[in-house]
User: Fold this.
Amino acid sequence: MSAFPTVTAFEAALAALPEPDAAARDAATTRQGQLTKPPGSLGRLEEIAIFLAGWQGRARPRIERGRAVIFAGNHGVVGRGVSAFPADVTVQMVANFAAGGAAINALAAAAGLDLSIVPLDLDRPTADFTTAPAMSEAECLAALSAGAEAVGDADLLVLGEMGIGNTTPAAALAAASFGGEPADWVGPGTGVDAHGLSRKAAAVADGLALHRPHLTGAFEILRRLGGREIAAMAGAVLAARGKRVPVVLDGFIGTAAIAPLAMVHPAITAHCLSGHCSAEPGHVRLLDRLGLRPILSLDMRLGEGSGAAVAVQVIRAALAAHDGMATFAEAGVAKG
Ligand SMILES: Cc1cc2ncn([C@H]3O[C@H](COP(=O)(O)O)[C@@H](O)[C@H]3O)c2cc1C
Ligand SMILES: O=C(O)c1cccnc1
Assistant:
């Protein structure tokens, strides 16, 4: 049975978001105060360890089944000249992922993450959202469910995407969820010129104008303006929450995927870390709206889960300090 057989099932999951394990989180907070360092001196590494303790439900969290999942989908809106690359690159990159030659292959391996690739109907692009809803209800539910199924038994989940043209639907989702002008949310993506940027802004404006009366809930925003890989990431974030699996978000597209969910239920971000801030200009604005602080800021703008995978190395460092350090009592160091 699929995870989200109906829109009602999706909305019910969104309305019943579990909280972290307060006892595990408190125990981790206490431990941080006992380790041989001035309180707070490991900064955000301390926060990350405590965050993982709460979501994994253990005072000493660890990453044993870290998993990166890359969803791929194709977009009808590419016909409007919104990407610097042709749509064929999506399927070609999926072959490259399978062969081990993409950035995410190298970065997931470096971070000790199992990598899986989920192509979603690549031979059936979504409809051009400037003229019709991108997906039917059944297509959007199938994509959400594919995302949910990919969570498996991961203890840390990195979500990534591949889909030529998908910075345009991502900008549309951000605009529909948080308002503002299309120009606030579009950016160069793979590297379009000024004309391409205007085409992207026009596509977002046309999509918003066409669908405006229906852009009231998370599902309809995702279905009308999103894409399969985007809906899959949203479904994975929601299903991960149901299992209390912490998630590391990647760049502009991966973050935009949860914007419609956050519009209705801002608490959806509580089990999410932002791995990095992308160079795509809308990303910093989106993170600000979602109240997320990125772990890294490396001027990356690739997608594929690449920035999130690099951030996992920082998360591993946070857990290594939390687990491996001695307490003041153990080390015989005066607590001051
Ligand atoms: C070779 C190649 C590898 C990629 N890996 C991720 N993306 C990234 O670029 C695309 C989004 O940018 P736009 O909206 O401008 O098309 C997505 O596929 C995203 O994952 C890639 C793009 C290319 C060309
Ligand atoms: O931030 C991202 O995820 C991104 C930016 C540009 C192109 N592809 C992905």
About this structure: Residues 306-324 form the longest helix (19 residues). The pocket of nicotinic acid (ligand 2) is lined by residues 167, 189-190, 250-253, 278, 280, 283, 301-303 (CB under 6 Å). Residues 7-18+62-318 form a domain with the Rossmann fold fold (CATH 3.40.50.10210). The two ends are 58 Å apart (CA to CA).
